[in-house]
């Protein structure tokens, strides 16, 4: 009789979305999931975990270790332990792009610049101060006042040829400024791209504080926004590593830590790899 | 059973009595302060950094440090009503929390969580390292009518900390010239012998305090040289120049020696040795400490407990035989009166001498003179010297600027990085 495979899960309870990732005993990514965090973080993490297992066709008993990360990591009742999303994003980014030395993680309310070594371990990091300017929330606020979806904001901004300078450094005031810029007759795509430039500038300031060492991997929810990728690449003068999976770097890193932790605890080593 | 009990290891409480002694000393000080007026004594307001309190002692002027009253009020959760009152008066949210609480505290009809603070009879303006304080004292003068005694303290300009003799003379002569004003305010004559005696007691306390903080060099470190030292630093400011102050530091030194002998400290074990820079967060002090204590981290050296005086450097020594000059040297070498390269060098020296694993910088929104340049210090330590350095931000008195979730995230990630460095595998 063939033994069932063993899996490891990572749940990233972020301020806006909860993400999940499942890896197998060789560390290969098996499945991911994402859903809104909402007001009840405990429910959101349980739901994400259940969805993850269902999508992968894996039973709970097959999961040997679960690590929680993100702001809600201490609220993940079914997890074995917690690791900060800073370490998890570094690990996840390095797993997807092994040449990664700098990670820019842009999430709902945090932007992090992380310098990593050749094993994907955090050497240094910097985060935005207690202000949502320069984070995903800045784009969300502007999208809301314009009645656009997040996806539309990114895509429409790509048509810009003459970006408007958005001078505001406050996510709340940016909403007002967006409307003002449109009232003055500026094109929608130019205003939208201007918002991206404003955020990118602040993020690059963070990156400079830890040092910009290629390759740079762009992670977090905002890494799925083509306007932001273009804007950062233009300002940095270099390509960024991104993929549909960079949204899951936190959860993926957590799942990989879960696998390591399990191996270290049980002494199973890496014979399966 | 009795045998088992007697052989059981002594708990940390047995080695944690100095904090209680400090609490009692502070309580007596507040009592003396709050009853000063009814006992016919004068009250002099002074800053913590660079205060020549020994002069006040001679004239029996009770010192009130608005920084200390404010931090105590904030520690007890009493800051918000005072901060709100100052903002109603027109102070910006960005203005210094100490200034705002200080101004609100002397406003008619204000009672604080430590009582109704007495109005000043004299405002000793030394403003070493902080220009905003000039305007604070100016405001207090407008509010209370108390006269201001200005002692201008020049900045330490040279990288090596050398101070020209004319700077020392300049400050010392101002101190001597202040005597007639203090005689007039207090109604008491200056007595040189008393001045020398309080200076002698001050010097003795400084020497003992230096020995206490240098015990951070031991491994394991018998104390937390940041979070615990914040309690221990109070007597050197509020009771300097008295026998009570000397007795406190003798007791503390004995207690720390006993801790070292029995191998006990403020955490279960010592896993990390940290150097701290910056003013702590007082409204959430114990939670803030807990973020580090739960990782078994001990502060081994810190700059903030030296705001009372840079005693662990060789910049000054109180000397009863040259009282005005030695007081002047103490005042010039206030931490925020040092230039930025000197401050950076000191932190680097602490990391080396105290064999620290990393540096934590707590930047506060209120204080430009402390927080200015901390980004550069971080960058220098992390990039040029490869010392793990964490920069976190909140405020020292205003609870609105502290977000535990965000701070915890950064602190936990810092320890994950330190664990990897130490080969512990981190996660």
Please supply descriptive tags for the structure shown above.
heterodimer, A: 273 residues, alpha/beta, Nucleotidyltransferase, domain 5, five-stranded mixed sheet, 10 strands, 41% helix, globular, B: 427 residues, four-stranded parallel sheet
Gist of the model:
The complex is a heterodimer of chains A (273) and B (427). Chain A is an alpha/beta fold.
Strand order of the largest sheet of chain A: 3-2-1-4-5
Radius of gyration of chain A: 19 Å
Low-pLDDT runs of 5+ residues of chain A are none
Overall structural class of chain B, as computed from helix and strand content, comes to: alpha/beta
Give structural notes:
The complex is a heterodimer of chains A (273) and B (427). The model of chain A has no long low-confidence stretch (mean pLDDT 89). In chain A, the strands form 2 sheets. A 5-stranded mixed beta sheet of chain A has the order 3-2-1-4-5. The two termini of chain A are 22 Å apart. In chain A, helix 2 packs across helix 8 and helix 5 packs antiparallel against helix 6. Chain A has helices at 41-56, 85-96, 136-146, 150-157, 171-183, 188-210, 226-236, 249-266; strands spanning 7-13, 17-24, 29-36, 63-69, 81-82, 102-106, 111-116, 122-127, 216-219, 240-241. Chain A has 8 helices and 10 strands. By secondary structure, chain A is α/β, with parallel strands linked by helices. With 427 residues, chain B is α/β, with parallel strands linked by helices. In chain B, the strands form 2 sheets. A 4-stranded parallel beta sheet of chain B has the order 2-1-3-4, with helices on both faces. In chain B, helix 3 links the parallel strand 1 and strand 2 (62-64). The longest helix of chain B is centred in the middle third of the chain and has 22 residues, at 192-213. At the A-B interface, strand 5, helix 2, strand 8 and helix 8 of A face helix 18, strand 8 and helix 19 of B.
């Amino acid at each position: 009789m063939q033994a069932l495979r063993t899996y490891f899960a990572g749940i990233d309870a972020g301020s806006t979305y909860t993400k999940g990732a499942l890896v197998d005993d060789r560390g290969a990514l098996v499945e991911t999931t994402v859903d809104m965090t909402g007001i009840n973080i405990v429910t959101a993490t349980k739901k994400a975990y259940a969805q993850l297992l269902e999508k992968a066709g894996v039973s709970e008993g097959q999961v040997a270790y679960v690590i929680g990360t993100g702001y809600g990591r201490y609220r993940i009742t079914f997890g074995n332990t917690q690791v900060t999303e800073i370490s998890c994003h570094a690990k996840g980014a390095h797993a997807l792009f092994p040449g990664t030395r700098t990670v820019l993680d842009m999430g709902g309310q945090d932007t992090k610049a992380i310098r990593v070594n050749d094993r994907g371990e955090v050497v240094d990091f910097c985060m935005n101060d207690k202000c949502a300017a320069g984070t995903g929330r800045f784009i969300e606020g502007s999208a809301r006042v314009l009645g656009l979806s997040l996806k539309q904001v990114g895509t429409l901004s790509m048509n810009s040829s003459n970006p408007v300078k958005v001078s505001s450094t406050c996510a709340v005031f940016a909403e007002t400024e967006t409307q003002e810029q449109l009232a003055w007759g500026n094109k929608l795509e130019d205003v939208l791209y201007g918002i991206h430039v404003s955020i990118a500038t602040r993020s690059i300031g963070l990156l400079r504080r830890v040092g910009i060492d290629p390759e740079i991997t762009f992670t977090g929810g905002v890494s799925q926004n083509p306007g932001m990728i273009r804007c950062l690449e233009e300002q940095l003068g270099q390509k960024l590593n991104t993929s549909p999976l960079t949204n899951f770097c936190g959860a993926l890193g957590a799942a990989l830590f879960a696998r390591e932790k399990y191996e270290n605890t049980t002494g199973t080593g890496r014979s399966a790899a | 059973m009795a045998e088992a009990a007697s052989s059981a290891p002594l708990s940390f409480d047995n080695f944690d009595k100095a904090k209680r002694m400090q609490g009692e000393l502070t309580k007596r000080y507040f009592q003396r302060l709050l009853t000063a007026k009814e006992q016919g004594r004068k009250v002099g307001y002074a800053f913590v950094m660079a205060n020549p309190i020994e002069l006040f002692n001679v004239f029996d002027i009770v010192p009130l440090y608005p920084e200390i009253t404010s931090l105590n009020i904030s520690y007890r959760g009493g800051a918000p009503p005072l901060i709100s009152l100052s903002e109603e008066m027109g102070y910006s949210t960005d203005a210094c929390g100490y200034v705002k609480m200080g101004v609100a505290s002397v406003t008619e009809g204000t009672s604080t969580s430590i009582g109704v603070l007495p109005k000043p009879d004299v405002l000793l303006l030394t403003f070493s390292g902080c220009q905003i304080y000039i305007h604070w004292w100016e405001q207090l003068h407008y509010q209370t009518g108390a006269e201001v005694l200005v002692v201008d303290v020049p900045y330490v300009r040279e990288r090596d900390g050398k101070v020209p003799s004319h700077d020392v003379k300049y400050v010392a002569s101002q101190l001597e010239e202040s005597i007639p004003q203090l005689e007039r305010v207090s109604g008491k004559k200056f007595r040189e012998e008393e001045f020398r005696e309080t200076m002698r007691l001050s010097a003795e306390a400084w020497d003992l305090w230096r020995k206490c903080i240098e015990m951070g060099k031991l491994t394991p470190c018998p104390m937390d040289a940041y979070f615990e030292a914040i309690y221990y630093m109070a007597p050197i400011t509020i009771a300097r120049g008295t026998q009570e102050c000397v007795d406190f530091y003798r007791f503390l030194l004995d207690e720390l020696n006993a801790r070292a002998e029995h191998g006990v400290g403020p955490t279960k074990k010592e896993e990390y040795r940290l150097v701290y820079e910056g003013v702590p967060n007082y409204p959430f002090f114990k939670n803030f400490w807990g973020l580090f204590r739960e990782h078994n981290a001990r502060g081994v050296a810190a700059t903030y407990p030296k705001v009372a005086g840079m005693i662990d450097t060789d910049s000054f020594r109180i000397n009863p035989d040259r009282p005005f000059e030695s007081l002047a040297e103490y005042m010039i070498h206030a931490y925020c009166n040092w230039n930025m390269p000197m401050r950076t060098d000191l932190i680097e020296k602490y990391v080396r001498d105290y064999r620290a694993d990393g540096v934590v910088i707590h930047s506060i929104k209120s204080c430009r003179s402390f927080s200015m340049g901390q980004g550069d210090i971080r960058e220098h330590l992390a990039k040029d010297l490869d010392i793990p350095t964490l920069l976190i931000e909140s405020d020292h008195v205003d609870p609105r600027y502290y977000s535990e979730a965000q701070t915890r995230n950064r602190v936990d990630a810092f320890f994950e990085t330190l664990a990897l460095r130490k080969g512990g595998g981190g996660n």
